[in-house]
Amino acid sequence: MRTRGFAALAALSVALPLVLGGCTARQRTKIETSIATALVSEEDEEAIGDAIHAEIERQGGRFVRDPIVRTYVEGIVARLLPEVRRVKAVEDVHVHVLDDPDVVNAFATPGGHVFVHSGLLLAARDEAEVAGVLAHEIAHLAARHPARRMVWMYGASAVAGLALGKDPALLAQVAAELVGGGVLAANSRSAEREADDLALLYVHRAGWDPRGLVRFFVRLREGDGDVPAFLAWLSTHPTSTERIERLRSELRARGWEGGDENADGHAIVKERLRKSERPRRRPGA
Ligand code: ZN
User: Fold this and answer.
1) What is the overall mean pLDDT for the chain?
2) Active-site residue 222, yes or no?
C-alpha cells in the first residue's frame, strides 16, 4: 500500500501545481494537507523524524544538555500542548536545543521533533517570544506541514526511501542542511499564515502574551545588538510588513493582548547558555 501510495503521490506532485494554480490559499492548504495525510503515514513520519535526529547526532550536531535550559524549553512545550490538543489530536512533541549561538533558527521535522538553536534563545528577549516561535513550529507539526514540505522538496519516492531507511545519502544531506543552519525550502505562504494564526491561539490560551511572536519578528527584521548575524529562521519566515500587520490586526480583532512574558526567567536561561557557549564562528558579526 505504501509503495502504491507514494507512486500515486509522485504522479500527483507533477499534476498538482497545475490543478492548484487556481485555488485560494485556504483550498490549497486543505488539498495539500489531505494528500500528505493520506500518503505519508504517521508511522513513516515518526521513522523519518527519528532518523533525522540520529543523523544530526552522528554528524556531530551538539545539543545543549544543561538541565535548566532543557527544562525551560520542555516546560514551554508542555504548557502549549494541551492548547494544541484542544484544536487537534497531536502526538508527543520532542524539543531539542542545538548548541549553536550563531544561528537564529528553529524548525520542525516529521515525527513530532522541534529543534531550536541556542542562538534563537539568545536572540529572544523573554519567554513570550520563545513560546511564540515554539508554538509556530508546533503548529506546523499539527498541520503536518513538515512531511508535506519534504515530499514537495525531495519527491515522494525519496521520502518513502527515508521512511524505509533506504536512502542514507539523502538523510545525511537533509540532516546537514538542518544543522548547518541551512534551510529546507520555506513553507508555502498559506502554511505560514496557518502556523502564525495557530501560534497566536495556542500562546494566548496558554497564558503568554501573544504579542511576543510579533515582537520577535519585528526585532529580527530591524536587528539589534542581541541578534546574531546568521538568521536562518528569517530566511524561511520573511518578516514582511504585510505579515506583521496581519498578525497585529488579528490580535486587535480578537482583543488579545497581555499575558505572561517572564523576562526574568528567560534571562537566567540566557545566562546559562552564555556560560556554556562555544566560540562564535563569526566574531564581531
Ligand atoms: Zn513557519
Assistant:
1) 81
2) no
SS (H, E, C) 169-207: HHHHHHHHHHHCCCCCCCCCHHHHHHHHHHHHHHHHHCC
Q: In what order do the strands lie in the sheet with 106-109?
A: 94-98, 113-117, 106-109
Q: What is the pLDDT of residues 122-170, one digit of tens each?
A: 999 999 999 999 999 999 999 888 888 777 777 777 777 887 888 888 8
Q: Is 238 helix (H, G, I), strand (E, B) or coil?
A: coil
Residues 36, 39, 43, 45, CA torsion sign? negative
- Given CA atoms 253, 32, 239, 241 in this order, what sign does their dihedral have? negative
Residue 217 Cα to ligand 1 midpoint, Å, equals 12
Q: List, for residues 37-57, the tens digit of each pLDDT value.
A: 556 677 878 888 888 888 888
Asked if 142 and 90 count as a contact pair (C-beta separation under 8 A), the reply is: yes
Grid coordinates belonging to 80: 502549549
For residue 33, pLDDT over 80 is answered with no
Q: How far is the CA of 237 from the centre of ligand 1 (A)?
A: 6
Q: How long is the chain?
A: 285
pLDDT in tens, 60-84: 888 999 999 999 999 999 999 999 9
Q: 102 CA distance to ligand 1 centroid (A)?
A: 20
DSSP 144: T
Q: Cα(156)–Cα(5) distance, rounded to whole angstroms?
A: 9
Pairing relationship of beta strands 94-98 and 113-117 according to DSSP bridges: parallel
Helix axes 42-58, 168-179, angle to 10 degrees: 70
Ligand 1 mean position, distance from CA 268 (Å):
27
Options 137, 192, 194, 261, the catalytic residue: 137
